[in-house]
Design goal:
Blueprint: E1 3-7, E2 10-13, E3 18-25, E4 34-40, E5 47-53, E6 59-61, E7 69-74, E8 79-84, E9 93-100, E10 116-117, E11 121-126
Length: 127
């Protein structure tokens, strides 16, 4: 019954900024939850971008976005945000919000264990 709804996305020029939001409803009873963003570019495998622990402090960033992207959460709103700054054309992809429970540390490994997914939102960065 878990639902994830993304908002944000669109087209920006290189160097610009964008913020994505993901709201979860009918969430997990287990408080050991990781939630965040994966992305998939054409002809590429889906990869983790940034993940955050809802009940703890664990945060994961892919090396390609460290220093440019910031993931945050508003627990009261059941929402996770991804602030994307200094965007590059290589960031162009479909971005998916995802969540899983039963984990203490958030990691980009184990994509198959993420139980619930949003519909995706396209991010396009032009040069």
């Amino acid at each position: 019954q878990v639902r994830l709804v993304e908002s944000g996305g669109g087209s920006v020029q290189a160097g610009g900024s964008m913020r994505l939001s993901c709201t979860i409803s009918n969430g997990y009873t287990d408080n050991r939850v990781c939630m965040g963003w994966f992305r998939q570019a054409p002809e590429k495998e889906r990869e983790a971008v940034a993940l955050i622990s809802i009940g703890g402090d664990s945060i994961y960033y892919d090396d390609s976005v460290k220093g440019r992207f910031t993931i945050s959460k508003d627990v009261a709103k059941n929402t996770v945000y991804l602030q994307m700054d200094s965007l590059k054309p290589e960031d162009t992809a479909m971005y998916y919000c995802a969540a899983r429970d039963s984990v203490s540390w958030c990691s980009g490994l184990g994509i198959q264990l993420y139980r619930d997914w949003g519909q995706g939102t396209q991010v396009t960065v032009s040069s």
